[in-house]
Amino acid sequence: MKTARTTVLMTPEEKASIEKRAASMGVSSGEYIRLAVDNYDKISPAEEAELAALVEEVNKAIPKMRTSLDRMSQTLRETSKEVDLALRAAGIRK
User: Fold this and answer.
1) Can you tell me the distance from the alpha carbon of 85 to that of 94, in angstroms, rounded to the nearest whole number?
2) Is 32 in the same domain as 78?
3) 57-75 confidence digits (pLDDT tens)
C-alpha cells in the first residue's frame, strides 16, 4: 500500500487539466502523475535512434550552414561598402 505523500501546488486550471487527462486514460489523477513522473526521463530505443539520426543530420548540416553564413556576412560587408560609397557620392554621408 502506498503511504508516502507529496503535495504539489498548482492552479485550479492545471489541476482540472490533469484530472481531465487522467480521466481520459481511466486512471486517478495521482496515478496519472505517478505515470508521468516515472516516464519523464525515459526514452524508447526507437526515439533514441531517431534522435541519433537527427543529431547526425544536424552535424552534417553545420559546415554548410557556416559556409552560407560566411557568404552572407561577406555579401553584407560588400553591400555596406557599396551603400556607403553611393551615399558619399550623393553627398548624403561624409
Assistant:
1) 10
2) no
3) 999 999 999 999 999 999 9
Residues 34 and 74 reside in one and the same domain = no
- Looking at the structure, tell me whether residues 48 and 84 fall in a common domain: yes
Question: Would you list the DSSP string of 35-90?
Answer: HHHHHTT---HHHHHHHHHHHHHHHHHHHHHHHHHHHHHHHHHHHHHHHHHHHHHT
DSSP 8-state code for residue 9 = -
pLDDT at 49: 94
Q: Are 29 and 18 in contact (CB under 8 A)?
A: yes
Structural domains in the chain (count): 2
What residues make up the domain containing 93? 43-94
Instruction: For residues 18 and 45, give the distance between their C-alpha atoms in angstroms, rounded to a whole number.
Output: 28
In a domain, 5, yes or no: no
**Position 72: which residue type?**
M
Residue 19 lies in a domain: yes
Regions of the chain short of the pLDDT cut 70 = none
